Amino acid sequence: MQTPTRDEWLAKARTLSEALPYMRRYAGSTFVIKYGGHAMGDASLAELFARDIVLLKQVGINPVVVHGGGPQIGQMLERLKIKSSFIDGLRVTDKETVEVVEMVLAGSINKQIVAAINGAGGRAVGLSGKDSNLITARRLERVQRDPDSNIERVLDLGFVGEPYKVNPQILHALAQSDIIPVIAPVGFDVNGDTYNINADTAAGAVAAAVKAARFFLLTDVAGVLDKDKKLIEKMSLEDAHKAIADGTASGGMIPKIETCIGAVEQGVDAAVILDGRVPHALLLEIFTEGGAGTLIGKA
Ligand SMILES: Nc1ncnc2c1ncn2[C@@H]1O[C@H](COP(=O)(O)OP(=O)(O)O)[C@@H](O)[C@H]1O
Ligand SMILES: CC(=O)N[C@@H](CCC(=O)OP(=O)(O)O)C(=O)O
User: 174 and 235: one domain?
Assistant: First the structure.
């Protein structure tokens, strides 16, 4: 490695020094971080993400990671020759599929993230919504209106769930320790059925239940972009509703923004959509003045 120049040293020192007020402000707070399947694709980025999470815990913040794994579920289903389809961005999930979903999310992916955090010097523990009754789910009802006849019909997505009750007791207990929870978005109901929950939705429900100071959604774009593809740095709840209504946000960004709105309405201080492909995106957002993604908050 080349010896840094004096200016480079000073720039590093300035960045560290700039972080101090943020460290003080957030010490003791809980941050919920949704780590998406696309964002975890690259091994070196996954390592940096794990280091960032360990750093947060080290400076007194309580990170709670909720992960996805859509692309990885897709690959496993393909290997097993099980066909899969989506309605409104949600995977239609029959009995056979939900078994694979649980295996991939609560099994391999969850343990990969736990191992990466532990490898970076942290102490992570993997949970699914089933552990400690964390996420009770119910079957998600999706209603679609036929534009021609205007008739509504209920779509059957199978074992796709929506969080019905989140019991944050285990998260509060872990916040008092040096352990970092890593949660797979799998829920259960009183009949013992297992549900596949969209990871953004699960993370939003967890963020609301713990009244997180910040809720981060790591995705594969810089944040919410305006019609000229420029990053919108800050949005009020009203702006966020407008971005959906006027078509600025489309596709996968709609449920993301809706999740952020819901989380803020339920007591999360602010939600941030940011680019998980940028190394240390989380640290930049949390500890620097400019931030990195789109912040959605009340004001
Ligand atoms: N206004 C917008 N700003 C940014 N991304 C948008 C916007 N409207 C639609 N999108 C799309 O939303 C996608 C993010 O949603 P999604 O693919 O579901 O993310 P993830 O897989 O991380 O959950 C972006 O890659 C982009 O294609
Ligand atoms: C119901 C539903 O669609 N569940 C998702 C759960 C994983 C997920 O949401 O992962 P990402 O965040 O990586 O997209 C799925 O089966 O793909």
Answer: no
